[in-house]
Specification:
By secondary structure, the chain is of the alpha/beta class. It folds into 2 domains: 213 residues, 3-Layer(aba) Sandwich (Rossmann fold), CATH 3.40.50; 111 residues, no CATH class. It has 12 helices and 13 strands. The strands form 4 sheets. A 7-stranded parallel sheet has the order 3-2-1-4-5-7-11, sandwiched between helices. Helix 1 links the parallel strand 1 and strand 2. The chain is globular and about 65 Å long. The model has no long low-confidence stretch (mean pLDDT 96). GO terms for molecular function: alcohol-forming very long-chain fatty acyl-CoA reductase activity.
């Protein structure tokens, strides 16, 4: 019997891409994906697309309706027994990733949902690995060097997303004493480094949304000094690294920063993005405090298609040490592309799909 994989977070972007790569290169015996009932139709379509392109038998992939916020993930006794008999690898990606998420929703999904998944994986007798998707930004407002083994340093947080992902990782670390666990902490994920493909224009894409709206201006200023490092990583690096870490015994009980090993300052990223997309360079500096004030007005946020919370990442001077990651991945030649080389691909994909409303977040 080969490996049997269970995923939450499908048909989300990273979960879908992980499954596509897993099926192509890791020959799974069986795949189970948990989906919320309202997402089932979309999940079936995505499953059919992946199975068709990878020549993977649809019978070897089962979509199970469930809910991570419910006891036993809302599975029936029959489903619980079936999964307990076979599952070897669990990838927990289901979460609310929106920086502007209300606190009660973030706590219900990110914290309580993860605790329910933790309880369930603790009962799987054949489990070889529990892969939990955290975020580098569990560091909150900490500045300076952040190490992979660190978590609770009494930090505060920039938003409810960061805080609830921190609390969820605390819970995962508690079960890691008894469950073979690997914690993945990505930086801010952008599209595929070769195709540019991404599901949503959020995160760094807010910058492109803004440039698109303001392109009529003769001059666009920098937003603050932008001295903080920007930590942006293409999704294909996240996928390749995660799947290797999920299968090597070296990664059991460890946490990995899948961050940019050679990050640029936000000021330089802003300039490179503007030059690539608009063919012009920023001039002058608009104080970040003034920008934040302006973004307090919902009509402006909605027009620019930018979340106010994203501005915090222009000034939080965190440096993410990824020594553990680099040492482990170097053995098989997995490296993160220089972000300068990713920007043209991002800009091209954005330009081609910028009018696709399904790729834009709803800004409140």
């Amino acid at each position: 019997m080969g490996n049997v994989y269970f995923f939450t977070g499908f048909p989300g972007f990273i979960s879908s891409m992980l499954l596509e790569e897993l099926i192509a290169k890791w020959a799974p015996e069986k795949v189970y994906t948990l989906v919320l009932p309202p997402m089932k139709e979309k999940a079936i379509a995505e499953k059919e697309r992946i199975c068709s392109s990878a020549y993977f038998p649809q019978a070897k992939w089962e979509i199970i309706e469930g809910d991570i916020t419910k006891s036993n993930l809302a599975f029936s006794e029959k489903q619980l027994h079936m999964l307990a008999q076979s599952v070897t690898h669990v990838f927990h990606l289901a979460a609310i990733y929106d920086l502007a998420v209300p606190e009660h929703i973030a706590r219900m999904v990110n914290v309580e949902g993860t605790k329910q998944v933790n309880e369930w994986v603790s009962l799987l007798p054949h489990l070889q690995r529990y892969v939990y998707f955290s975020t580098a930004y569990v560091s909150g407002t900490r500045q300076g060097m952040i190490f992979e083994h660190e978590l609770d340093k009494g930090q505060s947080f920039k938003n409810h997303y960061e805080e609830t992902k921190f609390l969820a990782e605390v819970a995962v670390r508690e079960v890691a004493h008894n469950v073979p666990t690997t914690i993945i902490r990505p930086g801010i994920v952008v599209g595929h480094s070769k195709t540019g493909e991404t599901m949503k224009f959020d995160g760094l894409y807010f910058m492109l949304n803004m440039f698109e709206r303001l392109k009529f201006l003769p001059v666009i200023p920098y937003l603050g000094k932008g001295e903080a490092q920007g930590n942006f990583v293409p999704v294909d690096y996240i996928i390749e690294a995660t799947l290797y870490l999920a299968h090597t015994d070296e990664a059991i009980g460890k946490t990995y920063h899948l961050t940019d090993p050679n990050p640029y300052k936000m000021r330089d990223i802003y300039r490179m993005m503007m030059t690539e997309y608009l063919g012009k360079e920023p001039k002058g500096i608009l104080p970040l405090s003034l920008v934040k004030w302006a973004m307090s007005f919902s009509f402006l946020r909605k027009w620019l298609r930018v979340e106010k919370e994203a501005l915090e990442y222009f000034e939080c001077a965190s440096i993410y040490d990824a020594t553990n990651t680099r040492n482990t991945l170097a053995k098989i030649g997995i490296t993160c592309l220089d972000f300068r080389d990713v920007i043209p691909v991002m800009a091209r994909y954005y330009r081609e799909h910028r009018h696709n409303s399904t790729k834009q977040l709803t800004i409140h």
